[in-house]
Amino acid sequence: METAGRDPGSCAVCGGSGLEGLFFRHGQRVWRCRSCGVRFLHPQPGDAVLQSIYTDGYFLGGDDAEGRARTAALKAATAALYLDRLGAFRGEDRGRLLEVGCGDGWLLAEAQARGYDVSGAEISAHAAEEANRRLGGPRVAGGSLEDMPLPEAAFDAVVCADVVEHVRSPLPFLRRLQKALRPGGALLLVTPSLDSWSARVLRRHWMEYKVEHLFYFGSRSLHLALRAAGFEEVRIEANRKVLTLDYVAHHFRRFRVPLISSGVGLARRALPSSLAQRPMRIPAAGMAALARRPRGPRGSNWRIPGE
After folding, report:
1. Where do the H-state alpha helices sit in 215-254?
2. Least confident segment among 22-26, 31-35, 262-266
3. What distance in Å separates the CA atoms of residue 304 and residue 53, rounded to the nearest whole number?
4. C-alpha neighbours within 13 Å on the C-beta side of residue 139
5. What tens digit of pLDDT does each residue of 193-206 get?
6. Structural domains counted in the chain
7. pTM score, two decimals?
8. Among 34, 72, 131, 163, whose CB has the most other CB atoms within 10 angstroms?
9. Is there a domain that residue 260 lies in?
Protein backbone atom coordinates (compact mmCIF):
# COMPACT_ATOMS: atom_id res chain seq x y z
CA MET A 1 0.00 0.00 0.00
CA GLU A 2 1.28 3.47 -0.95
CA THR A 3 1.15 6.05 1.82
CA ALA A 4 3.68 8.73 0.94
CA GLY A 5 2.65 12.02 -0.65
CA ARG A 6 0.46 14.99 0.09
CA ASP A 7 -2.67 14.06 2.06
CA PRO A 8 -5.98 15.13 0.43
CA GLY A 9 -7.28 16.34 3.81
CA SER A 10 -10.88 15.14 3.95
CA CYS A 11 -13.22 13.01 1.86
CA ALA A 12 -15.21 14.90 -0.78
CA VAL A 13 -18.20 12.59 -0.24
CA CYS A 14 -18.57 12.01 3.51
CA GLY A 15 -16.11 14.54 4.96
CA GLY A 16 -14.12 11.83 6.74
CA SER A 17 -10.43 12.30 7.47
CA GLY A 18 -9.40 8.63 7.39
CA LEU A 19 -7.82 8.58 3.95
CA GLU A 20 -5.18 6.20 2.63
CA GLY A 21 -3.14 6.12 -0.54
CA LEU A 22 -3.60 2.75 -2.25
CA PHE A 23 -1.51 2.62 -5.42
CA PHE A 24 -0.48 4.48 -8.56
CA ARG A 25 -2.28 3.95 -11.87
CA HIS A 26 -1.21 5.73 -15.06
CA GLY A 27 1.04 7.93 -12.93
CA GLN A 28 -1.85 9.06 -10.69
CA ARG A 29 -2.27 8.13 -7.04
CA VAL A 30 -5.54 6.41 -6.12
CA TRP A 31 -6.79 7.14 -2.59
CA ARG A 32 -9.55 5.55 -0.52
CA CYS A 33 -11.77 6.90 2.24
CA ARG A 34 -11.92 4.39 5.07
CA SER A 35 -15.33 5.71 6.16
CA CYS A 36 -17.43 5.55 2.97
CA GLY A 37 -15.14 3.60 0.65
CA VAL A 38 -15.04 6.10 -2.22
CA ARG A 39 -11.79 6.13 -4.20
CA PHE A 40 -10.37 9.13 -6.01
CA LEU A 41 -7.31 10.59 -7.69
CA HIS A 42 -5.21 13.07 -5.74
CA PRO A 43 -3.77 15.31 -6.91
CA GLN A 44 -6.18 15.53 -9.82
CA PRO A 45 -4.78 15.95 -13.34
CA GLY A 46 -4.79 19.52 -14.62
CA ASP A 47 -7.24 21.00 -17.11
CA ALA A 48 -4.74 20.78 -19.97
CA VAL A 49 -4.29 17.04 -19.39
CA LEU A 50 -8.03 16.41 -19.38
CA GLN A 51 -8.62 18.60 -22.44
CA SER A 52 -6.03 16.57 -24.32
CA ILE A 53 -8.08 13.43 -23.56
CA TYR A 54 -11.54 14.78 -24.43
CA THR A 55 -10.90 15.08 -28.16
CA ASP A 56 -13.28 14.44 -31.06
CA GLY A 57 -12.19 10.77 -31.02
CA TYR A 58 -12.86 10.20 -27.30
CA PHE A 59 -16.08 8.23 -27.84
CA LEU A 60 -15.52 4.77 -29.28
CA GLY A 61 -17.02 4.45 -32.73
CA GLY A 62 -15.98 2.36 -35.69
CA ASP A 63 -13.26 2.27 -38.32
CA ASP A 64 -15.71 2.45 -41.26
CA ALA A 65 -19.36 3.20 -42.00
CA GLU A 66 -20.42 -0.36 -41.20
CA GLY A 67 -18.58 -0.34 -37.86
CA ARG A 68 -20.05 3.02 -36.92
CA ALA A 69 -23.53 1.74 -37.75
CA ARG A 70 -23.04 -1.28 -35.50
CA THR A 71 -21.81 0.95 -32.67
CA ALA A 72 -24.81 3.24 -33.16
CA ALA A 73 -27.15 0.25 -32.82
CA LEU A 74 -25.47 -0.75 -29.54
CA LYS A 75 -25.77 2.76 -28.12
CA ALA A 76 -29.43 2.94 -29.11
CA ALA A 77 -30.14 -0.45 -27.51
CA THR A 78 -28.38 0.58 -24.28
CA ALA A 79 -30.31 3.86 -24.27
CA ALA A 80 -33.55 1.88 -24.52
CA LEU A 81 -32.53 -0.19 -21.48
CA TYR A 82 -31.81 2.97 -19.49
CA LEU A 83 -35.10 4.60 -20.44
CA ASP A 84 -37.03 1.42 -19.63
CA ARG A 85 -35.48 1.47 -16.16
CA LEU A 86 -36.20 5.17 -15.69
CA GLY A 87 -39.78 4.79 -16.93
CA ALA A 88 -40.45 1.89 -14.57
CA PHE A 89 -39.19 3.98 -11.65
CA ARG A 90 -41.21 7.04 -12.65
CA GLY A 91 -44.32 5.15 -13.69
CA GLU A 92 -44.46 7.01 -17.02
CA ASP A 93 -42.48 7.72 -20.20
CA ARG A 94 -43.10 11.41 -20.81
CA GLY A 95 -42.26 14.90 -19.60
CA ARG A 96 -39.19 17.10 -19.85
CA LEU A 97 -35.93 15.16 -19.79
CA LEU A 98 -32.40 16.52 -19.46
CA GLU A 99 -29.32 14.43 -20.14
CA VAL A 100 -26.12 15.83 -18.65
CA GLY A 101 -23.13 14.53 -20.59
CA CYS A 102 -25.23 13.36 -23.52
CA GLY A 103 -22.37 12.56 -25.92
CA ASP A 104 -23.63 12.12 -29.48
CA GLY A 105 -27.25 12.18 -28.34
CA TRP A 106 -28.30 8.54 -28.70
CA LEU A 107 -30.29 8.42 -25.46
CA LEU A 108 -31.93 11.76 -26.20
CA ALA A 109 -32.96 10.52 -29.64
CA GLU A 110 -34.55 7.43 -28.11
CA ALA A 111 -36.28 9.56 -25.45
CA GLN A 112 -37.51 11.97 -28.11
CA ALA A 113 -38.97 9.05 -30.08
CA ARG A 114 -40.84 7.98 -26.94
CA GLY A 115 -42.44 11.40 -26.58
CA TYR A 116 -40.15 13.17 -24.11
CA ASP A 117 -39.35 16.87 -24.55
CA VAL A 118 -35.56 16.55 -24.49
CA SER A 119 -32.61 18.81 -23.70
CA GLY A 120 -28.94 18.03 -23.23
CA ALA A 121 -25.63 19.36 -21.95
CA GLU A 122 -22.29 18.15 -23.32
CA ILE A 123 -18.69 19.23 -22.74
CA SER A 124 -17.51 18.19 -26.24
CA ALA A 125 -18.45 20.75 -28.87
CA HIS A 126 -18.11 18.11 -31.58
CA ALA A 127 -20.42 15.69 -29.76
CA ALA A 128 -22.95 18.45 -29.00
CA GLU A 129 -23.05 19.37 -32.69
CA GLU A 130 -23.60 15.73 -33.65
CA ALA A 131 -26.35 15.38 -31.03
CA ASN A 132 -28.17 18.44 -32.33
CA ARG A 133 -27.96 17.07 -35.86
CA ARG A 134 -29.43 13.79 -34.67
CA LEU A 135 -32.22 15.53 -32.72
CA GLY A 136 -33.14 17.86 -35.57
CA GLY A 137 -32.56 21.14 -33.75
CA PRO A 138 -30.66 23.04 -31.04
CA ARG A 139 -31.53 20.78 -28.12
CA VAL A 140 -28.02 20.38 -26.67
CA ALA A 141 -25.83 23.10 -25.15
CA GLY A 142 -22.04 22.75 -25.11
CA GLY A 143 -19.66 23.71 -22.33
CA SER A 144 -18.21 22.58 -19.02
CA LEU A 145 -20.71 20.34 -17.25
CA GLU A 146 -19.58 21.53 -13.83
CA ASP A 147 -19.94 25.24 -14.64
CA MET A 148 -22.86 25.18 -17.08
CA PRO A 149 -25.87 26.99 -15.60
CA LEU A 150 -28.80 24.61 -15.13
CA PRO A 151 -32.33 25.84 -14.45
CA GLU A 152 -33.98 25.01 -11.17
CA ALA A 153 -37.04 22.77 -10.92
CA ALA A 154 -37.39 22.52 -14.69
CA PHE A 155 -37.27 18.80 -15.52
CA ASP A 156 -39.29 15.71 -14.79
CA ALA A 157 -36.25 13.48 -15.32
CA VAL A 158 -32.49 13.87 -15.47
CA VAL A 159 -30.14 11.25 -16.91
CA CYS A 160 -26.42 11.32 -16.12
CA ALA A 161 -24.61 8.28 -17.55
CA ASP A 162 -20.85 7.77 -17.18
CA VAL A 163 -20.31 11.38 -16.09
CA VAL A 164 -20.07 11.77 -12.30
CA GLU A 165 -16.73 9.93 -12.21
CA HIS A 166 -15.31 12.71 -14.43
CA VAL A 167 -16.25 15.73 -12.30
CA ARG A 168 -13.86 17.38 -9.87
CA SER A 169 -16.39 17.94 -7.08
CA PRO A 170 -19.15 15.30 -7.13
CA LEU A 171 -21.36 16.58 -4.30
CA PRO A 172 -21.92 20.12 -5.68
CA PHE A 173 -22.51 18.53 -9.09
CA LEU A 174 -25.15 16.14 -7.72
CA ARG A 175 -26.83 18.99 -5.83
CA ARG A 176 -27.17 20.91 -9.10
CA LEU A 177 -28.78 17.88 -10.75
CA GLN A 178 -31.20 17.61 -7.82
CA LYS A 179 -32.16 21.26 -8.09
CA ALA A 180 -32.70 20.94 -11.85
CA LEU A 181 -35.48 18.43 -11.16
CA ARG A 182 -39.04 19.39 -10.42
CA PRO A 183 -40.27 18.21 -7.00
CA GLY A 184 -40.81 14.47 -7.30
CA GLY A 185 -38.67 14.32 -10.45
CA ALA A 186 -36.35 11.35 -11.00
CA LEU A 187 -32.64 10.93 -11.62
CA LEU A 188 -30.99 8.02 -13.43
CA LEU A 189 -27.26 7.98 -12.81
CA VAL A 190 -24.82 5.40 -14.22
CA THR A 191 -21.19 5.10 -13.15
CA PRO A 192 -18.48 2.43 -12.83
CA SER A 193 -18.83 0.40 -9.63
CA LEU A 194 -16.15 -0.71 -7.19
CA ASP A 195 -18.58 -3.52 -6.29
CA SER A 196 -18.62 -4.93 -9.84
CA TRP A 197 -17.12 -8.31 -10.64
CA SER A 198 -14.60 -6.67 -12.96
CA ALA A 199 -13.33 -4.33 -10.21
CA ARG A 200 -13.03 -7.21 -7.73
CA VAL A 201 -11.20 -9.49 -10.20
CA LEU A 202 -8.89 -6.93 -11.84
CA ARG A 203 -8.21 -4.90 -8.66
CA ARG A 204 -5.58 -2.22 -9.38
CA HIS A 205 -5.64 -3.21 -13.07
CA TRP A 206 -9.36 -2.44 -13.39
CA MET A 207 -9.96 -0.85 -16.78
CA GLU A 208 -11.97 1.98 -15.18
CA TYR A 209 -8.87 3.38 -13.45
CA LYS A 210 -8.28 6.10 -16.04
CA VAL A 211 -6.63 9.51 -15.85
CA GLU A 212 -9.95 11.20 -16.64
CA HIS A 213 -11.89 9.22 -14.01
CA LEU A 214 -11.41 11.31 -10.87
CA PHE A 215 -13.80 9.43 -8.51
CA TYR A 216 -14.71 5.75 -8.11
CA PHE A 217 -17.87 4.83 -6.23
CA GLY A 218 -19.24 1.68 -4.66
CA SER A 219 -22.93 1.35 -3.89
CA ARG A 220 -22.46 2.60 -0.31
CA SER A 221 -20.50 5.74 -1.20
CA LEU A 222 -22.83 6.58 -4.10
CA HIS A 223 -25.87 6.14 -1.85
CA LEU A 224 -24.29 8.48 0.71
CA ALA A 225 -23.44 11.03 -1.98
CA LEU A 226 -26.97 11.06 -3.40
CA ARG A 227 -28.54 11.39 0.03
CA ALA A 228 -26.11 14.20 0.92
CA ALA A 229 -27.12 15.95 -2.32
CA GLY A 230 -30.76 15.93 -1.19
CA PHE A 231 -32.17 12.93 -3.07
CA GLU A 232 -34.56 10.40 -1.59
CA GLU A 233 -35.88 6.95 -2.58
CA VAL A 234 -32.35 6.00 -3.66
CA ARG A 235 -32.10 2.62 -5.39
CA ILE A 236 -28.83 1.19 -6.69
CA GLU A 237 -28.58 -1.84 -8.95
CA ALA A 238 -26.00 -3.52 -11.17
CA ASN A 239 -26.02 -1.97 -14.62
CA ARG A 240 -26.13 -3.67 -18.00
CA LYS A 241 -25.13 -2.41 -21.42
CA VAL A 242 -25.74 -3.88 -24.84
CA LEU A 243 -22.32 -4.71 -26.28
CA THR A 244 -20.62 -7.08 -28.69
CA LEU A 245 -17.34 -8.92 -28.32
CA ASP A 246 -16.13 -6.78 -31.22
CA TYR A 247 -16.82 -3.61 -29.20
CA VAL A 248 -15.31 -5.05 -26.00
CA ALA A 249 -12.14 -6.05 -27.88
CA HIS A 250 -11.91 -2.52 -29.29
CA HIS A 251 -12.24 -1.11 -25.77
CA PHE A 252 -9.44 -3.32 -24.40
CA ARG A 253 -7.18 -2.39 -27.29
CA ARG A 254 -7.58 1.25 -26.34
CA PHE A 255 -7.53 0.79 -22.55
CA ARG A 256 -5.07 -2.01 -22.08
CA VAL A 257 -5.18 -4.35 -19.06
CA PRO A 258 -2.42 -6.96 -18.54
CA LEU A 259 -3.49 -10.40 -19.80
CA ILE A 260 -7.14 -9.36 -20.20
CA SER A 261 -6.53 -7.26 -23.34
CA SER A 262 -4.58 -10.01 -25.06
CA GLY A 263 -7.10 -12.66 -23.95
CA VAL A 264 -10.07 -10.70 -25.28
CA GLY A 265 -8.16 -10.08 -28.49
CA LEU A 266 -7.50 -13.81 -28.93
CA ALA A 267 -11.16 -14.61 -28.29
CA ARG A 268 -12.23 -12.06 -30.90
CA ARG A 269 -9.88 -13.47 -33.53
CA ALA A 270 -11.05 -17.01 -32.81
CA LEU A 271 -14.73 -16.24 -33.38
CA PRO A 272 -16.46 -15.62 -36.70
CA SER A 273 -17.72 -12.07 -37.17
CA SER A 274 -21.33 -13.27 -37.00
CA LEU A 275 -20.77 -14.22 -33.34
CA ALA A 276 -18.34 -11.44 -32.42
CA GLN A 277 -20.84 -8.85 -33.63
CA ARG A 278 -23.87 -10.37 -31.89
CA PRO A 279 -25.34 -7.91 -29.31
CA MET A 280 -25.42 -9.11 -25.69
CA ARG A 281 -26.61 -7.58 -22.42
CA ILE A 282 -23.43 -7.47 -20.35
CA PRO A 283 -23.17 -6.67 -16.59
CA ALA A 284 -19.61 -5.41 -16.79
CA ALA A 285 -18.31 -2.58 -14.62
CA GLY A 286 -21.16 -0.29 -13.76
CA MET A 287 -24.10 0.40 -11.47
CA ALA A 288 -27.28 2.36 -12.05
CA ALA A 289 -28.78 4.60 -9.38
CA LEU A 290 -32.34 5.85 -9.36
CA ALA A 291 -33.37 8.62 -7.00
CA ARG A 292 -36.01 11.29 -6.59
CA ARG A 293 -36.09 14.95 -5.62
CA PRO A 294 -38.36 15.41 -2.60
CA ARG A 295 -41.76 16.82 -3.44
CA GLY A 296 -42.42 20.52 -2.81
CA PRO A 297 -43.27 23.78 -4.58
CA ARG A 298 -42.49 23.85 -8.29
CA GLY A 299 -39.88 26.25 -9.61
CA SER A 300 -39.48 28.12 -12.86
CA ASN A 301 -39.07 26.45 -16.23
CA TRP A 302 -36.00 26.50 -18.47
CA ARG A 303 -36.19 26.84 -22.20
CA ILE A 304 -33.98 24.61 -24.33
CA PRO A 305 -30.98 26.20 -26.12
CA GLY A 306 -32.19 28.18 -29.12
CA GLU A 307 -35.79 28.57 -27.98
Report:
1. 219-228, 245-254
2. 262-266
3. 28
4. 30
5. 999 998 998 999 99
6. 1
7. 0.86
8. 131
9. no
